[in-house]
């Protein structure tokens, strides 16, 4: 039996005939809200992961390398076999003062014609030897000439416009390695004391130790790169020098060094008929003296020049890579552009323009990746992820039968070298937790060579990457030699040297004249004679003037 509550009767405030909704339990409503929130969070996480993966595949988180090359290093994939030239250590008193030049993107910017920027005197440059070498090696000559936009016939004439000097400061340049028959650009810092050839604008154009062509540095902040190589005594990243472009002039305004973004007013432009001069520092007397630019070679035996050589100003521009891959390797946005990649600029801003050193784990500017990227200058390479790193997003690498990578999470040990010779004959590495040994041919050749590997997979490498100079430059400070195989590079556990067998090819001409005389009597045929003559080709040599 039910009773109404005390008080006057009450009626629900709802339309007549409506049925009141059934009350919903509170715990069910809370569960629905929680599930909805979880789904939303998972959707955001999934979307973020997709974006990260896509960005990794596009290479947007790539950290380019800035190599350090000491004065006596053979260089990375040199154009010319090491000429056994040595550079004397530069006296600390000759090193460019840290106050010279204007602060610029984490470095010091200085005009190439600044008096005393370069040291004169005895250098280890041999422009005539480089000219003769290129004349005898057409592939290297074509790649070398392509850097300056000239023909191979113009190489001696271009070399004759350059002058040998010694760097008085650690200098950032765009270096070019000879890789796969092409000139491949990479960002490089040359140690003070390095001998180079410079043009009349004071821009380094050739590294004498290896013959590699040089150009102005890329237009990107130094903090966006990862430093690769061994630091030398006196090295300080913020004292690295850049040579100003043709649109920049470093001048003194109100007792302070300032960059003026305009072309220098007739800087180092000689009068008609006069030779250009550079003011160099005498290493013995510490006094300045003028040196005439160029005119060191005897070109009397060369074919006449049929083209106009590029002016120093036309070549003194920031690097614009010819491919997107090369742009990424050099910290640029894309092919044909000189602007730095956005992530390179962001990374420099986030670390105060203090670049990390290879092997350090660094949070990328986007905040979505830490750890080393997997590229090297001029060549494709990969780094082992640091064991102490907390959470890293590894860069995407394509897998193929020719690609080799170590699946071990342990840090690789230094490479063990054995034997003697001028090239690597065999080497071993670890792939998928298995040791693989590859054998290289013993015949000297150019271009790529096919390897015979114990796992039966087909692999090939450039012959030049197995040479002593390339192995030295590709061996890091911990003694680990990394070799590019396919789309990645692997740490080599052991390697054996061999002496390549020179391949000699003689060109012969066979003359086989067959003369048939026809008469009314039966035909008689003269005996055929074959003469073999050795064909020789003489190339006019480039010799020093005088």
Please give a structural write-up.
There is one protein chain. The protein has helices at 26-58, 127-136, 138-148, 155-159, 312-315, 324-329, 342-350, 468-473, and strands spanning 65-69, 102-104, 107-110, 118-119, 163-167, 171-179, 182-190, 195-198, 204-207, 214-215, 226-228, 241-243, 249-253, 256-260, 277-281, 288-292, 297-298, 416-419, 423-431, 434-439, 448-453, 459-462, 482-485, 488-491, 494-498, 508-511, 516-517, 524-525, 531-534, 543-544. It is 15% helix and 24% strand. A hairpin with a 2-residue loop joins strand 6 and strand 7 (182-190). It has a 6-stranded mixed sheet, with no helix packed on it. It has 546 residues and is α+β, with helices and mostly antiparallel strands. The model is unreliable at 46-60, 361-409 and 505-538 (pLDDT under 50). The radius of gyration is 33 Å and the shape is globular. The N and C termini lie far apart (132 Å). The protein is built from 8 helices and 30 strands.
């Amino acid at each position: 039996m039910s009773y109404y509550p005390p008080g006057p009767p009450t009626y629900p405030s709802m339309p007549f005939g409506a049925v009141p909704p059934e009350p919903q339990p509170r715990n069910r409503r809370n569960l629905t809200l929680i599930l909805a929130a979880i789904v939303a969070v998972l959707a955001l996480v999934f979307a973020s992961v997709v974006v990260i993966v896509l960005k990794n595949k596009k290479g947007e988180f790539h950290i380019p390398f800035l190599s350090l090359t000491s004065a006596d290093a053979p260089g990375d994939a040199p154009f010319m076999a090491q000429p056994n030239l040595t550079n004397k250590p530069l006296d600390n008193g000759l090193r460019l003062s840290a106050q010279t030049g204007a602060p610029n993107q984490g470095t010091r910017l200085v005009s190439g014609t600044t008096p005393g920027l370069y040291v004169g005197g005895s250098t280890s440059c041999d422009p005539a030897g480089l000219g003769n070498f290129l004349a005898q090696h057409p592939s290297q000559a074509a790649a070398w000439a392509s850097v300056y936009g000239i023909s191979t016939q113009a190489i001696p004439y271009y070399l004759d416009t350059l002058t040998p000097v010694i760097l008085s400061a650690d200098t950032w340049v765009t270096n070019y390695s000879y890789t796969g028959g092409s000139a491949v650009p990479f960002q490089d810092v040359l140690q003070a004391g390095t001998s180079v050839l410079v043009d009349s604008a004071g821009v380094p154009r050739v590294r004498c130790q290896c013959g590699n062509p040089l150009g102005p540095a890329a237009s990107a902040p130094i903090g966006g790169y990862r430093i690769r190589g061994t630091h030398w005594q006196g090295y300080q990243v913020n004292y690295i020098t850049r040579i100003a472009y043709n649109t920049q002039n470093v001048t003194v305004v109100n007792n302070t060094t300032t960059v003026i973004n305009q072309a220098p007013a007739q800087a180092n432009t000689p009068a008609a008929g006069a030779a250009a001069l550079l003011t160099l520092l005498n290493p013995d007397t510490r006094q300045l003296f003028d040196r005439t630019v160029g005119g060191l070679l005897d070109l009397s035996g060369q074919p006449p020049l049929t083209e106009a050589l590029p002016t120093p100003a036309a070549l003194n521009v920031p690097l614009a890579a010819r491919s997107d891959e090369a742009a990424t390797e050099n910290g640029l946005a894309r092919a044909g552009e000189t602007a730095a990649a956005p992530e390179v600029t962001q990374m420099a801003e986030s670390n105060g323009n203090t670049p990390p050193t290879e092997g350090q784990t660094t949070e990328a500017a986007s905040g979505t990746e830490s750890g080393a990227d997997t590229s090297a200058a001029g060549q494709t390479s990969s780094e082992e992820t640091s064991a102490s790193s907390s959470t890293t997003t590894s860069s995407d690498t394509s897998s193929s039968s020719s690609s080799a990578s170590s699946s071990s999470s342990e840090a690789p040990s230094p490479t063990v070298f054995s034997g003697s010779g001028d090239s690597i004959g065999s080497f071993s590495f670890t792939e998928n937790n298995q040791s693989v040994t590859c054998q290289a041919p013993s015949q000297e050749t150019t271009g790529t060579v096919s390897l015979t590997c114990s796992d039966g997979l087909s692999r090939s490498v450039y012959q030049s990457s197995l040479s002593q100079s390339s192995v030295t430059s590709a061996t890091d400070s911990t003694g680990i030699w990394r070799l590019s195989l396919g789309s990645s590079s692997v740490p080599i556990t052991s390697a054996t040297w061999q002496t390549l067998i020179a391949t000699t090819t003689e060109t012969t001409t066979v003359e086989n004249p067959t003369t048939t005389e026809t008469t009314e009597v039966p035909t008689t045929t003269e005996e055929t004679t074959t003469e073999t003559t050795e064909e020789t080709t003489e190339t006019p040599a480039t010799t020093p003037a005088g």
